[in-house]
């Protein structure tokens, strides 16, 4: 490059012919070692000797010798200098062939730093810091395409190099710039093999992306690039952008492996089924649940044919389909798949087999997420008994189920039992992993939550501080797990009404989330909302509103206006501003009714004038018709809801008819007939907890998710539950039947009687809205895909308005989120 910032724009590139000629020169000059030479070796032994006399870049020689081999750059090449130069150049040539096969193909010219920069002088070291975030980034945008050469796939070198991370981000963040990732042929084959045999290694690749740990050959380059990142987008946004791009690339390669096998007409083999199953796991891990389910089902059809309906892989696929359906929120389908897996494993392996126990554990996870804690505890207990008997009381799976039992009792509000089981899990973690392991810290955090909910603030603080010390040593002070622990400590001080210390810890958590995820991420928004609600508790409406408004803006931008987190942020904003959501809705409805009444009066006057000119009998008929029309309008909404429900039932019936296994179909029918009649069998409208969840595997690994703490009143004590009789509309017939309702512990539960287990729990985390309708005669509670409708019962002590206000209040207060840890499902 020549001197001067403007002259350092990346404009020129070298042709395919130039790449081929350089590769041929390399082979001719170093025939025995050119395949092992790195880019750095090629620079020192070939490029520098040829350009040293003229003190110029290699491209300058090409301009003199072969000017047609230099042109406007169309592809920016991002690579690591420790790569083997022959591998890199062959990737460029393969990429050029791909482009040439396209209809609108144009000549390709590569901006390749080995050729374009003057290697006799470190030009970049003398460039000002702003060059990287302006001229360099603009140059990549003008080129329009970034080609990232990635190897080895297990631990890609570019993800550890500051230069490469910055180049990738400049491509990703420029609208209209395309980023392509390519591997050498040998690495592509290795990746395809790994997808089939080591899918966890594929997904773990993304975890290692941390720009702040990247290095550069020249420390001054690293300093300049880091300064540009910190003054620009920040490390959090850079890490996330790179991970998103790699995630998309990884999914593309996984799907391509399946389609390549299909193209070879191997789509009916067990090998194809195995690949589909493994790719399904990768897709499910990355949140592509629908696509994962499709691949699982393809594999299931093959294994049913080759192994029979009771094969080991058939059971495994039903298990994994259950996990995918649960993560998607299709709880009824998840139950069906788990029960099929369980039935096969009990018959083939026996009730006392660890794999059977894993399925019991997974069923427990499903019931817990549905809010059916008693069923969850029953499943976890069965799994735990088998694990203790077969693997011993010190095995990680035993510890996992102890932890899950503790979380279930914690959710149920039985804090002493929660503490008992979490302490058992902790003892196993310490013995197996030691007292400095992150999983030990995870269990300490759960124990702290149990003590916090019980009201023992000192013990809660003690557990959180132990967990914090482990996380700081293991991960440092910029890790999300550290932020979770700061959040939990902040919540202790909220309960103690020590708002100054609470703000201190919650602000620490926010700072980490901003750096880890960026300003515009849902996790950051949750931290903002927590601080806003805290300022609201302090009576500082201005600060509270500012934080919650920022959170709301992020939720709207990232999750959309209809997501439950967005709806809750709206409620939180009204709460901190001192507005009652229910009163506001009543005022709005009252105004609408007044406007309708005015329009009606005007219409009646006009009608009266016209009717006076006609016969009295005709007038009566017209009046009668108008009355009937009004009645039809009043019932229109109810009719539409009923039609929607009927349509869903018809869809489910069609799905059932497609079941190939008649015995399974009959079994499912019996299960459905045994359900409460008014609830029906539609899984499409099942209420779902929409907290962000990540599940660990059956080896005892764990990951954090944002949980919801019990709501508290202004003095920090738990709110009293609201209970009473209401009449709930059934989904099949539309009739209203009496039910006993209870609002507490983050759920609206209902059942047939005041005593006994509730038939259904509606998590408040899934409630989109609650309002009184039809002139105060109906309470409507909306969740994704369904609206629950209640009417007063003669035995009701509380009015529908009381229920509505209580639900909205708890939704608003419940927006403050603590951090619990889910041990998770067993994936096969």
From TrEMBL:
It comes from the Eukaryota. Residues 578-592, 609-618 have a biased composition (Basic and acidic residues). Residues 593-608, 619-654, 661-680 have a biased composition (Acidic residues). Residues 572-728 are annotated as: Disordered. Residues 719-812 form the PH domain. TPR repeats lie at residues 315-348, 357-390, 399-432, 441-474, 483-516. Residues 709-722 have a biased composition (Polar residues). InterPro entries: NLR-like, PH-like_dom_sf, PH_domain, TPR-like_helical_dom_sf, TPR_rpt. Pfam families: TPR_12, TPR_8. PROSITE patterns: PH_DOMAIN, TPR, TPR_REGION. Keywords: TPR repeat. This is Mbre TPR repeat protein. The lineage of its organism: Eukaryota, Choanoflagellata, Craspedida, Salpingoecidae, Salpingoeca.
